[in-house]
Amino acid sequence: MDSIEISDKEFNLFRALIYNISGINFSMEKRTLVRGRLASRLRHYKMNSYYDYYKYIDSGLGGELQVAVDLLTTNETYFFREPKHFDFLHEMVLSQQRGAQLRYWSAASSSGEEAYSLAMTLAEYARTYDWSITGTDISTRVLERAKFGHYSLDRLQEMPTALLHKYCLKGVGKHSGTFIITPDLRKKVKFIHANLKDDLTVLGHFDVIFLRNVLIYFDLKTKQQIVAGILRRLKPQGYLIISHSENLHGVTDKLVALQPSIYQKK
């Protein structure tokens, strides 16, 4: 089954499918990636071509569309990725805001490491505030992992040792080599399935939104659409934080750059 090739026509069907749903724009170089990630589903259904699998998705049967989206979306993250962003929250945001509530959004939360990093930051430096974290992602598979807050030790990398000891429990026995986020911290983080292309009014408004390592997957038109939607969820004077590898050139004029990758809503 692994020897089944994906034709240009078949690849373009999946390419259009994922673009229409998520806005992710696969280049032709991603053909091998698509073939590899979907091969297990062909084996599962004993299908002989990627077109057969596409037709099955298109039929709407079995919830297979979400399975395909889960497989074709990239989910790469780790704790305290790009540490300067968390330094900014500590030194600037938390010292300036005087609201009774703080609401933060990890807008592509993947398996939850970013959302829990935000939670640890607020637990440390916003103790006098009523705060909460919302994490969203288009992949239901990674959101289930995020809700459990259970990770292998190699996911730590940038986590400060003091926070590790305070907010993580080391696995023993059959869970050796893993750790879990403490229950009290997990209670402060809510994970919701959401597509950034959709109207997300239901989420409410946020003081800080992390939209990191997301825009690199979109063309300019989709970037403009998604950022416009994100900004409707950001409070006036709120902060939008993207990755250091991204920029908002030509995307929006409703933000002021405070430093590379950190913006404030006008």
Overview of the structural elements:
There is one protein chain. The chain is an alpha/beta fold. It has 2 domains: 8-72, Chemotaxis receptor methyltransferase CheR, N-terminal domain (Chemotaxis Receptor Methyltransferase Cher, domain 1); 84-265, 3-Layer(aba) Sandwich (Rossmann fold). It contains 10 helices and 10 strands. It has helices spanning 8-22, 31-45, 50-59, 64-72, 84-96, 113-125, 140-148, 161-167, 183-186, 220-232; strands spanning 101-106, 130-137, 150-152, 168-170, 178-181, 189-193, 206-210, 234-241, 255-259, 262-265. Helix 5 crosses helix 6. It is globular and about 60 Å long. The model has no long low-confidence stretch (mean pLDDT 92).
CATH superfamily of the largest domain: Vaccinia Virus protein VP39
CATH topology of the largest domain: Rossmann fold
Rg, nearest Å: 20 Å
Approximately what portion of the residues adopt beta-strand conformation?
Answer: 15-25%
The backbone outline, from C-alpha atoms, is globular
- The helix/strand class is alpha/beta
Q: Please give the domain count.
A: 2
Which parts are unreliable, with pLDDT below 50 for 5 consecutive residues or more? none
Q: Tell me about the biggest sheet?
A: 7 strands, mixed
Task: Count every helix, treating DSSP H or I runs of 4 or more residues as helices.
Answer: 10
Spatial order of strands in the largest sheet: 6-2-1-7-8-10-9
Distance between the termini: 54 Å
Proportion of residues in helical segments: 40-55%
Task: Give the rounded overall mean pLDDT.
Answer: 92
Order of helices and strands: HHHHHEHEHEHEEHEEHEEE
By CATH reckoning, the class of the largest domain would read Alpha Beta
The tally of strands reads 10
